[in-house]
Amino acid sequence: MLGYIFNFGWLDDLVRMLVENIFKISMDTHLGGSVHFFIFDSIKILILLSIMIFGISYIRSYFSVEKTKQALEKIGGLKAHIAASLFGIVTPFCSCSSVPLFIGFVEGGIPLGVTFSFLITSPIVNEAALVILLGTFGFKVALLYVISGVVIGVLGGYLIHVLKLEKYVEEYVYQMKMGNQEIVELNRKERISFAKENVKDIVSKIWKYLLVGIGIGALIHGWAPEEILSKYAGPDNPLSVIVSTVIAIPLYSNAMGTIPIAEALINKGVGMGTAMAFMMATTALSLPEMILLRKVVKPKLIGIFTGITGVSIIGVGYLFNIII
């Protein structure tokens, strides 16, 4: 009974009844499959999203950005990269909203490599994406995805630190001094209010991306030719991961918007690693992010960041295709 509830079996049955009895569409048709996919995934993801954002936001209320910045200033070496990458998990949901925090960290004196560890991990992995991955692909895939995102962030940031690329940051950034903001402690009622507002704010910002992603996924689920996708983008095609990563880089979305697309592609025979690489590259390496980054770093550093992250994502894609 609990499995039926937590695996959304009840929702699946309700949507099937809706499609067949109210809309009068057979589930055996392409249209029926697409409509069911869209309605089921939209409701399921929004429920999971709201619950998880509330819970994590309540926990996050104990760890302000200012506290985190102060903590990162005291940590050195590889530990700082790990801490920054983990912090990225509980912060913004897309690359463009991560960039302002990245800029603040650089201006605040946090080492460049550490800030890149945050910037790489933040859009790839977050609590909302984690819960949707759990509900869509199960524990093993979700755990591997999170570990991969953190490892990419840590290694990418650490490599940028080793290469000593501070000279490729615009000079005015280091001339700016950010004052420390006062740390305000919240009571229980204020933390609950903060969590509720965070749910409203985040859902209001991402629901459009979410529905677009689910809509694309529904079309793929119902209409995309399974044999062609399986042949050219399946795990046996050695170039599929590279092609999917390169295609994804100019695109822009957040993890929640790309998960339904990845789900539909995998159901059609696309390799798990190919779909995961597409997800990671779309969220971590977007054109709007590069435009924002150009305000504070020079083109060469953007190129190095893109290269390191892109190669790492391709490696993770092949790893997924081998393991899963």
TrEMBL record:
This protein's record includes keyword Transmembrane helix: yes
Keyword Cell membrane: yes
TM region(s), chain numbering: 37-59, 109-134, 141-160, 206-224, 236-255, 275-294, 301-323
A GO term from the CC aspect: plasma membrane
Matches recorded under InterPro entries: DUF318 (IPR005524), UPF0718_permease (IPR053166)
Top-level taxon in the UniProt lineage: Bacteria
Subcellular location: Cell membrane
Keyword terms, alphabetized: Cell membrane, Membrane, Plasmid, Transmembrane, Transmembrane helix
Topological category with respect to the lipid bilayer: Multi-pass membrane protein
Family of the protein in this entry: Belongs to the UPF0718 family.
PANTHER family reported in the protein's UniProt record: PERMEASE RV2963-RELATED (PTHR42775:SF1)
Protein's name in the database: Permease
Organism this protein belongs to: Ilyobacter polytropus (strain ATCC 51220 / DSM 2926 / LMG 16218 / CuHBu1)
